[in-house]
Amino acid sequence: MRVGVVGGGQLGRMLGLAGIPLGMRFRFLEPTHPCPAGECGEVITRAYDDPLGLERFVDGLSLATYEFENVPAQAAAWISERVPLHPSTRSLTVSQDRIVEKRAFEALGIPVQPFAAVSTPEDARDAARRIGLPCVLKTRRLGYDGKGQCVIRAVGAEGIEATVVAAWESLGSAPCILEAFVPHTAEVSMIAVRAKPRGCEAQTAFYPLTENVHRRGILWSSVAPAPCDPDGKLDSVARGFVQRLVDSLDHVGTIAVEFFVTEQGLIANELAPRVHNSGHWTIDGAHTSQFENHLRAIASWPLGSPTLCVGACAMINLVGLSIEPSQLLARDGARVHLYGKDQRPGRKLGHVTLCADTPAELAPRLARLESLVEWA
Amino acid sequence: MRVGVVGGGQLGRMLGLAGIPLGMRFRFLEPTHPCPAGECGEVITRAYDDPLGLERFVDGLSLATYEFENVPAQAAAWISERVPLHPSTRSLTVSQDRIVEKRAFEALGIPVQPFAAVSTPEDARDAARRIGLPCVLKTRRLGYDGKGQCVIRAVGAEGIEATVVAAWESLGSAPCILEAFVPHTAEVSMIAVRAKPRGCEAQTAFYPLTENVHRRGILWSSVAPAPCDPDGKLDSVARGFVQRLVDSLDHVGTIAVEFFVTEQGLIANELAPRVHNSGHWTIDGAHTSQFENHLRAIASWPLGSPTLCVGACAMINLVGLSIEPSQLLARDGARVHLYGKDQRPGRKLGHVTLCADTPAELAPRLARLESLVEWA
Question: What does pTM read for this prediction?
Answer without folding.
Answer: 0.95
